[in-house]
Amino acid sequence: SVEQALRAGCFEVVIVSDPTLTGRDGVRWQRAAESGGSTALIIRERAGREVPASLRLRVGREGFVVVPGG
């Protein structure tokens, strides 16, 4: 459903909280977002590299820091 919402382009931002990612979900979501002109905001408790990202937000005790994705 995340992929469909991103691809549809009906929403500027699609927020996903702590998703369970399998296989190539991250790459498919990236392509769907590009196709639909949407932005995916994925909130996870632990850092993960499964989702391609231009930027990542690292949250800590002192606040947050924007870091390049990878």
Q: Which properties best describe this structure?
A:
70 residues; alpha+beta; two-stranded antiparallel sheet; 4 strands; 27% helix
Describe this structure in words.
- The protein is of the alpha+beta class.
- Helix content is 27%, strand content 31%.
- The protein contains 2 helices and 4 strands, in the order H-E-H-E-E-E.
- The chain has helices at 2-8, 25-36, and strands at residues 13-17, 39-43, 55-60, 63-68.
- The strands form 2 sheets. A two-stranded parallel sheet has the order 1-2. It has a two-stranded antiparallel sheet with strand order 3-4.
- The longest helix has 12 residues, at 25-36.
- The radius of gyration is 12 Å and the shape is globular.
Short description:
By secondary structure, the chain is α+β, with helices and mostly antiparallel strands.
Task: Indicate the topology.
Blueprint (H helix, E strand, L loop, with lengths): L1 H7 L4 E5 L7 H12 L2 E5 L11 E6 L2 E6 L2
Parallel strand pairs: 1-2
Antiparallel strand pairs: 3-4
Low-pLDDT runs: none
Mean model confidence by pLDDT: 84
- Main pleated-sheet profile: 2 strands, parallel
Overall 3D form: globular
Tally of individual helices? 2
Number of strands: 4
**Helicity range:** 25-40%
Kindly report the spatial arrangement of strands forming the biggest sheet.
1-2
Report the C-alpha radius of gyration, rounded.
12 Å
Give the structural class: alpha+beta
* Secondary-structure element order, N to C: HEHEEE
Strand content: 25-35%
What is the terminal separation in angstroms?
Answer: 25 Å
